[in-house]
Structure formats: C-alpha cells, structure tokens
Specification:
This protein has ten helices and twelve strands. The chain has 281 residues and is an alpha/beta fold.
C-alpha cells in the first residue's frame, strides 16, 4: 500500500460504524460465531441482537419466541436499543444478518461521501411490489446515518399510523423500516459504485454465475436496477454478500485480506477518491 493510500485508509478508519447483527440463540455457534471471528472485528462496535441475553454476548430485544414471523418486532426493538444507548456515539448504523459478510473498508468508502448528520438510508435497493417505492434488502444489510436513525425512532416509531407498531407480528422487517422512513421523507439511496451493485442478496458463488436468476426469479423481478450477471453483477468495491455460511465466511476472509496474486495489483483508488475523502454531502 502506497503512502497516499495509507493516508486515505487512515482517514476512512475514523468513520465510526456500529454494526448490529440479527441472530438467534440456536444460531450463535452455527452462524454468529463466524461473523464475530471475521468481518465484525472491523466494525467500530458490534452488537448481537436476539431474544435472550447470553455470554456470547447477545442482547435481548424481544421477549417472545424466535422465528421469521417475529422479524419486525425484533428489528424494531434492535433499532430502539441502538438509539437508546448509542445514537450519539457513532456516525453510521449497519444492520446485517448472521449469514451476511461485509467488507467494512468498502462500506466506509461509500458512506464517507455523505454527512451522517443528514438522513441517509443505503443498501441493496429492491422494488416494493408494483409501485415506484423501493426498500433496502435486510439480508444484504443496510446502513442508516445517525440522523436517519433519529428520525426513525423519534418520529416514525411515535406514529403508529405511519410506522408499523412493534406489537404487530410481521416478517418483512426491511420493508417496514423503509416504509417508516419514507413516510417521514427519508428515501432509499442507491449504493451503486462504478455503476454496479455493491450490496448483494446472495453469496458470491450464486451472483457470479452468468446464468443465475432467470427473468421470472423474484430477484430479477424486484431488483430496482436491471440485474447484471456474471462478474458484471458486482462492483469491484462490493460491500456485502448474503447467505454466506461459515465455510464461505473464512474463504472470503482469506481471499480478501490474505491472498495476493504475484504481480497483480488491486490497489488503484476510485476516480472520485478525493471527493470521497473530502467534505461529505
């Protein structure tokens, strides 16, 4: 890494990101432990949200049984907890699942372009039914600026007619978060880098296949932008992949941070790097 690149890296490392991971008691040693052993170490702080307080540690944000149908109450409880305890301590707040892999350096490069004191909601943008609305995939992970989190909790959560109450059993946590935010003027923002997607709803072996996702597949139908396949699917500065099991967590960790092909450099900065490390918008 050159001297200039090292300075940029040091600048980006100062961006404070709290990562909270949605997990289950039965998943701690199957999934969450691999997140903890790999990419989560690069978050400024990481919290694991569950239905039980454990020595892992996990934080109980709901007091009922686990399951997909309880994802919204659990997600809303997690956002409330993060707001109550950490809203002024961090710039950005990343929600991810315990089978999501995140390249934190690329996430910091993305959010460096934005002012966390303004409301931003970034992630993998999907179409909401047959409307002009869109939402961010929960599985691929999404990130809220500090101001967006404040609006979500201080305004949206206080308005049951505009934001689904925590008592409602509902599995579409990502749609509900988007609906709560867009009802208060916070719209999803593209996280395209170089014209290609950076948050991904599936693991690399799936999204990289040239014949993946036929037109009738939900992913192709609901992708906000035309779905690209093969290597063109993904930005070279990709941020996240979903449905990543423990095997692939360690594989990605090794190939991204340890393996280097001799004579081949991967350290060119993006064309707009000076604007990224300059004053955010």
């Amino acid at each position: 890494m050159s001297h200039g690149q090292n300075e940029i890296s040091q600048h980006l490392s100062k961006i404070r990101i709290l990562c909270w991971i949605m997990t289950y008691p039965s998943n701690l040693n199957k999934s969450a432990i691999h997140v903890r052993n790999t990419w989560a170490k690069r978050c400024t702080k990481t919290l694991y949200m569950s239905s039980e307080n454990t020595a892992f540690p996990t934080i109980a944000v709901v007091d009922h049984l686990e399951g997909r149908k309880y994802l919204w109450p659990k997600c809303r409880g997690a956002h409330q907890y993060v707001y109550d305890h950490h809203v002024d301590d961090f710039d950005w707040f990343l929600k991810a699942d315990d089978d999501t892999y995140v390249i934190m350096e690329n996430l910091r490069m993305l959010v460096a372009q934005y002012d966390p004191n303004k409301p931003f909601h970034l992630g993998r943008r999907l179409k909401y039914k047959e409307t002009e609305r869109s939402f961010m995939s929960g599985g691929a992970g999404y990130v809220l600026s500090r101001e967006a989190l404040k609006i979500l909790v201080e305004e949206a959560f206080q308005s049951p007619e505009k934001c689904t109450p925590i008592t409602v059993v509902e599995e579409q946590e990502d749609v509900n978060v988007a609906r709560c935010l867009w009802n208060f003027g916070v719209m999803p923002i593209d996280a395209l880098i170089g014209g290609r997607e950076s948050f991904h709803c599936f693991a690399p072996p799936i999204v990289l296949q040239p014949d993946a996702f036929p037109r009738e597949h939900w992913y192709a139908r609901h992708s906000y932008h035309p779905l690209k396949r093969g290597p063109e699917c993904c930005s070279e500065y990709s941020i996240s992949f979903h449905y990543v099991d423990g095997y692939w967590m360690y594989m990605l960790e090794y190939m991204i941070y340890h393996m280097r092909p001799f004579g081949v450099g991967y350290y060119d900065c993006p064309d707009n790097i000076m604007s990224i490390v300059g004053k955010p918008t």
